Amino acid sequence: MDFVRVIKNSNDLEKFIDIPKGLKNRKVEVIILPYTDKEDVEQVEKKSLRGALSKYKNEVLRAQESDAWSKAVVDQYENR
Question: Which of 17, 18, 56, 80 is deepest in the core (most CB within 10 A)?
Answer without folding.
Answer: 17
